[in-house]
Amino acid sequence: MTDAEQSHYRICPLCEACCGLEVRTQGARVLGVRGADHDVFSAGYVCPKGYALKDLHEDPDRLRRPLVKRDGGFVEVGWDEAFAEIERRLVPILQRDGRDAVALSVGNPSAHKMSLILYFSRLAKALGTKNVYSASTLDQMPKQLSCGLMFGHWLSIPVPDIERADLLVVIGANPVASNGSLWTVPDFRGKAKALRARGGRLVVIDPRRTETAEIADAHHAIRPGADVFLLAALVHTLFDEGRVRLGRLAGHVNGVDELRQAVTPFSPERVAARCGLDAAAIRGLARELAAAPRGALYGRIGTCTQAYGTLASWLVDVVNVLTAKLDEAGGAMFPKAAAFAHNTMGAPGHGRGVGTGRWASRVSAAPEVFGELPIGVLAEEIETAGPGQVKALISIASNPVLSAPNGARLAAAFERLEFMVSLDIYLNETTRHADVILPGPSPLEDAHYDFAFPQFSFRNHARFSGAVFAPPAGQPAEWQNLLRLAAIARGDGARADVEAFDDALLMDELRKQAGEQAPIVMQALNASGRRGPERLVDLALRSGPYGDRFGQNPGGLTLDRVIAAPGGIDLGALAPRIPEVLRTPSGKVELAPPLLLADLPRALADLDTPAPPLVVIGRRDVRSNNSWMHNLPTLAKGPFRCTAWVHPEDAARLGLADGARATLAANGRRLDVTVEVNGTLRPGVVSLPHGWGHDLPGARLALAAQRPGANLNALFDDAARDPLSGNAVLSGVAVSLSPA
Ligand SMILES: Nc1nc2c(c(=O)[nH]1)N[C@H]1C(S)=C(S)[C@@H](COP(=O)(O)OP(=O)(O)OC[C@H]3O[C@@H](n4cnc5c(=O)[nH]c(N)nc54)[C@H](O)[C@@H]3O)O[C@H]1N2
Ligand SMILES: Nc1nc2c(c(=O)[nH]1)N[C@H]1C(S)=C(S)[C@@H](COP(=O)(O)OP(=O)(O)OC[C@H]3O[C@@H](n4cnc5c(=O)[nH]c(N)nc54)[C@H](O)[C@@H]3O)O[C@H]1N2
Ligand code: SF4
Ligand SMILES: [Mo]
Predict the structure, then answer these.
(1) CB 626 within 8 Å of CB 108
(2) Which of 26, 154, 252, 258 is deepest in the core (most CB within 10 A)?
(3) pLDDT, tens digit, for every residue of 335-376?
């Protein structure tokens, strides 16, 4: 008898759109993947990466057993042996050199796995190291810092209420390709079309006429890195032309006068050349934003991965406030997540706010931001001898050799480590340096509730998906691996009882939250039989803003109720939340945080810097995902995607024809690339995607190695960063390009 076909619901863990998928299986086989029509949030949307979950599940290169390096090569070992090796080698380093000698590097997929995101902090706490690094300083740290300063929490980030907007201005984002970021919005294209169909306008500000610009009403091809000037000029114009309108927020903002003064030098006429845009176009944009009754300005990674990332991120929200678009229907609004959102916890309306620099990096004195140091200082912290030197590294779903600047320096630094552990599903450019690799299960062997993305979603919702397949016998969940590492770090040893440790940690937390009621809450949670992350999700839902509060709010959310609802539970359109959402000490929106005002003169001093003849920007393609999905047949097929796009005028000037091999160089380093002449770029700008360069020895990525591409980040300077947030500069870097 053959197995019957089955259909499973799975929330896609690959990008921030978090689509609900339907995975069809027969026995142990995946028959196919498609969008789940009944998903209350994504309503059947899926992109090619979603289909590729089948390939990922079946990829022969995906690791299924722990690997330990012996005599320079990896051998498969059992789980106990792998952890024994970790204990044997990590504990002496901790004992001899202290906690800061062990660094943590945590990567993007961690945000998409409840096991990793919920238990990473437990490992970090057990280790007690100041050396925590993550993809956040390659990505969104500027936005988190600016929003933290303005609204009081690092994750209080407003998102466009696209379904009710009449105007959407997108700066430095390409959601048609990326499917959205710090804005969970499956089927952006469909929603943008609907906006235009009801008479609304989509405007894109980007050095390239992107896939998003192609479906827009207007496109402004800004010079890379000039966003701070454009945005300051928009704010200047709103004041200058008397168009500031605070609306309902009038009593809820601080710093209007300081802001007006601070942007005085940034008139459109003064910044136009730097931005590569007409002053009239800048004034026109300010007027359009001021006039639109419902709309939002939305900025993303293009505005973050640059030297003024925090200033640009701040000014985006300032424009929304000054045009009465923040916290209004159809504007930029704060989601209210059902679980885990700090801006739904504690006393509503005010809080401790955020700050930076509680500690600093040892070598370059880069300030701590949100508990982390800039990933750009990791190499020097490993290389530089002295107290506090990093001697060991635990990488968790992180591939900085490709995703961070100056990967070759990082790779060399990793070779000098005394010990390295990687929690990863591939033997790749980073994990080849590890002494022990602990693989996680396939994404289809994992249950999921989104910790982060409901905090940035275009509608409020609560969705859960169970594992499609049981993990292979003996395969621990990643939370168990993290707790076992935490037990080793605490000195409890590799054989510590992880379940009992999990209970004890939860009990500590409950005592803080519920005091004497803690044992009763624990009992209620345990009645479901859940452990690990699922028990934490249940707690977060039940004690969250829609929760049943353990009986106090009958009918409220529990994990059981979310699971019982096919395709999840829709919690409605975004609703105004100011002042309740604020966690600033003043209880106001801080329009002019001193840290940011103090950084504006740095931008002003840079206003007249001449444009380099050629700069490079990145590019995302819907069939690629950062550095790790190039080994999947569904995504790898078709035209080669890691090509250097060059504007026809630049190609002619540089003597480059379509398909030519060329040398792209910066900071004294060079890459061989294939040229594609492409008219969508602003002249003087070339584009190469990141996350490629799969030709490094020792990796085990057979398909990716066939067309390895070039690693854009190899060119970049790891010291180039936004000083406030520590975010790396990954865009607008001066390069030269010449025939190979
Ligand atoms: N030049 C340039 N550089 C960039 C960017 C850019 O735009 N331009 N973007 C930056 C951004 S936004 C980001 S987020 C970073 C991303 O950079 P990273 O944080 O390094 O993330 P990825 O490149 O996605 O690599 C993910 C790693 O996690 C592993 N992995 C995948 N799934 C799992 C799992 O389930 N469990 C475990 N344990 N491991 C898993 C993969 O094998 C891989 O090693 O790159 C940044 N780098
Ligand atoms: N298909 C796919 N989807 C992804 C990813 C992926 O690798 N592939 N990665 C995921 C991750 S980790 C993230 S963080 C998100 C990112 O999501 P997005 O922020 O939408 O990322 P990009 O598509 O890189 O869009 C950034 C845009 O900024 C433009 N840009 C570059 N420099 C500048 C500048 O100086 N100023 C302005 N105004 N624009 C500039 C680029 O041309 C590009 O169009 O995407 C996620 N989704
Ligand atoms: S857009 Fe694609 S990769 Fe992103 S969540 Fe949806 S199916 Fe997955
Ligand atoms: Mo990212």
Answers:
(1) yes
(2) 154
(3) 999 999 999 999 999 999 999 999 999 999 999 999 999 999
291 has pLDDT over 90: yes
Domain count, the chain: 5
Average pLDDT value for the chain? 98
8-state DSSP, 266: -
- Ligand 1 pocket test, pick from 306, 626, 690 with the greatest ligand atom count within 8 Å of Cβ, gives 626
- For the Cβ of 15 lying below 6 angstroms from any atom of ligand 3, the answer is yes
Q: Is residue 23 within 8 Å of 444, Cβ to Cβ? A: yes
Angle at 230 between CA 228 and CA 232, to 5 degrees: 65
Closest CA to 444 of 19, 6, 57: 57
Q: Which residues span the domain enclosing 407?
A: 67-129+374-438
Ligand 1, residue 620: give the atom nearest the CA: 7
In 3-state terms, what secondary structure has residue 663? strand
Q: How many residues does the chain have?
A: 740
Same domain? For 517 and 599 the reply is: no
> What residues line ligand 2, using a CB cutoff of 6 Å?
15-16, 108, 139, 171-175, 177-179, 181, 205-208, 210, 222, 224-225, 227, 300-303, 306, 617-618, 620-622, 624-626, 731-732
| pTM (2 d.p.) | 0.98
Residue 319, H or E segment: helix 309-322
* 78 lies in some domain: yes
Strands (DSSP E) along 400-465, which ranges? 419-423, 436-438, 448-449, 459-462, 464-465
412 Cα: distance to centroid of ligand 3 (angstroms)? 34
Residue with tokens 């940011």: 596
Residue 248 Cα to ligand 4 midpoint, Å, equals: 33
> Which of the ligands is closest to the CA of residue 110?
1
Domain at 12, CATH number = 2.20.25.90
Cα separation, 34 vs 19, whole angstroms: 10
Query: Taking a C-beta distance cutoff of 8 angstroms, is the pair 603, 311 a contact?
Result: yes
Residue 440 Cβ contacting ligand 1 at under 6 Å = yes
506 sits in which H/E element? helix 498-514
74 and 118 in a single domain? The answer is yes
In the numeric block, which tokens belong to residue 220?
């402004």
Q: How far apart are CA 444 and CA 10, in angstroms?
A: 8
Cα–Cα distance between 716 and 408 in angstroms, integer?
10
